[in-house]
Design a protein that fits this description.
258 residues; mainly alpha; 11 helices; 72% helix; globular
Length: 258
């Protein structure tokens, strides 16, 4: 079957670099330490309503690790590079949807980053700050489902970024615009409920909270998995958009150099 083959191959490709990636995790975790120490300093004089210092340490640690699952998808799923080389023409000729092909390869990447990025980074924070872990299986199941939904949304976004390269010579601006909104609206830096009312309304009416905010809130026990219904609706919507864009791409393809 195509699904396990593509996922497995993408996962195995990354295994060649797991040693260097584990070293890189130490550098990545330093950013989380900086955010944690900032909130510890703020918590010394402020209440940090709804979280407290301990809660914010958990919040920041989980979000920093979760970025590797829901935030750092491959730029354009590799499509812009394939457009530049002309390989995209062969991809579109295959009897399998371009979205299906690229999404499956990215799921292998996501699985790898969950095992070799998310878990080690969170474990570092857990050891240093003596985290307590949830005791209910439903919490872990809800968190895993939330991360899966967030990862799928990230894949869809990057697919749209990649396909945009079929009509423009530069789609990087879309990628960085999305990254800016991710940092602002997903609850990564500041919990969504602490945002100004107008910005909080924008955030809650977008898909960004499903990338960071809802997964960590479920993990901390502040929300139930029922909140993910909205995330599933976003997944269906993005799937339809990706399917439509794929159909348009097959109608007319412009590849640089012919």
């Amino acid at each position: 079957m195509l699904f396990p083959v593509l996922v497995r191959k993408a996962y195995r490709v990354n295994l060649q670099y797991r040693g260097s990636h584990l070293v890189h995790n130490l550098a990545s975790s330093l950013f989380g330490f900086m955010y944690i120490f900032i909130w510890m300093g703020i918590g010394a004089t402020h209440e940090l309503e709804g979280y407290g210092v301990t809660g914010m340490i958990h919040y920041v640690g989980f979000n920093q690790a979760a970025l590797w699952v829901t935030g750092f998808a491959t730029f354009g799923l590799g499509i812009p590079q394939r457009v530049r080389t002309g390989q995209i023409a062969l991809d579109l000729m295959r009897p399998v949807s371009l979205f299906y092909q690229t999404a499956l390869r990215e799921w292998g990447q996501v699985a790898y980053q969950f095992v070799y990025k998310f878990l080690p980074i969170y474990l570092i924070y857990a050891i240093v700050f003596s985290f307590s872990f949830p005791t209910q299986f439903s919490t872990y199941a809800g968190t895993f489902a939330a991360l899966a939904i967030g990862a799928y949304l990230a894949i869809c976004i990057q697919y749209l970024v990649g396909v945009l390269a079929l009509w423009t010579t530069e789609s990087g601006w879309f990628h960085w615009l999305n990254y800016a909104f991710l940092m602002l609206l997903s609850g990564f830096f500041v919990p969504v409920e602490w945002l100004p009312s107008w910005l909080r309304a924008i955030s809650l009416h977008s898909f960004y909270p499903y990338l960071q905010y809802h997964p960590v809130k479920i993990y901390l026990g502040h929300e139930s998995a029922s909140v993910l219904t909205g995330g599933l609706v976003w997944c269906v919507g993005f799937s339809l958009v990706c399917a439509m864009v794929t159909w348009l791409a097959r109608q007319r393809v412009e590849v640089q150099g012919g």
